[in-house]
Structures are given as structure tokens and as C-alpha cells.
Design goal:
The protein is α+β, with helices and mostly antiparallel strands. The protein is built from three helices and four strands; from the N terminus they run αββαββα. Helix 1 runs parallel beside helix 3. The termini are far apart.
Length: 115
């Protein structure tokens, strides 16, 4: 009945708008920070591949931020040779808007301590 009544199509429209808004929020916050850069904005997915400027070991940074309840995935987890250590993957799918704001703010404030 849900499918026959067009419910899925309406739901997909709402989901796209929901995640588009969260994506735009996170992207805008990241772009305001001098220590973070999105090298490829991408055209899909629920995450950003973010470069840490200047280069910081994202795995060491991940361990420190985990203690503050800030979660991201270190970039070296996504390469066979362990490169991309100064990148992180940030997802906007699960956190609330306030969680996105808090996470980006805490990451940007803590990064200078690792330089």
C-alpha cells in the first residue's frame, strides 16, 4: 500500500532534502576553518574526505579526539600502504545539527595542539 500510494517517492524526496541540508551545514563549517580543507567535494555519499592542514597524523589525532567523544575515521585506514595519514573521513549522516557544529568546532580547536 505504501508503495502503491507513492509513499516511497515522497520519503526519498524528504531524505534527500534532510541529508542535503546536513551536508551543506558540515561543508560550510569545514570551509570556515583554516586547518581543514575538502579537496574533493564529491557528488554523493554521506561523508567528507577532509585534509588536515598542516599535516597532522590523523590516527594520533583520532585517539585524542575519541577521549572527547568526537568520532571520525583516520585517512590511513583507507589506503593499503598507510598513506593519507593527514586526512580524515567525517560523516554527516548520524550526528544532529548541533553534533555537527560541535564536532567540527572541537576538531578545529584541537588541531593546533598537534602541530
Amino acid at each position: 500500500e505504501f508503495l502503491a500510494a507513492g509513499g516511497l517517492g515522497r520519503h526519498i524526496v524528504r531524505l534527500r532534502e534532510h541529508y542535503r541540508r546536513k551536508r551543506d551545514l558540515m561543508q560550510g563549517l569545514i570551509e570556515e576553518e583554516a586547518v581543514l580543507r575538502i579537496p574533493h567535494a564529491g557528488h554523493g555519499g554521506l561523508c567528507f574526505w577532509v585534509e588536515i592542514l598542516p599535516k597532522v597524523d590523523s590516527y594520533a589525532f583520532y585517539r585524542a579526539m575519541r577521549a572527547r567523544n568526537i568520532r571520525f575515521l583516520p585517512g590511513n585506514l583507507f589506503s593499503r600502504d598507510g598513506s593519507h595519514g593527514n586526512f580524515m573521513r567525517l560523516s554527516f549522516a548520524v550526528p544532529t545539527d548541533e553534533g555537527i557544529r560541535r564536532g567540527v568546532r572541537h576538531i578545529a580547536e584541537a588541531l593546533p595542539l598537534f602541530l
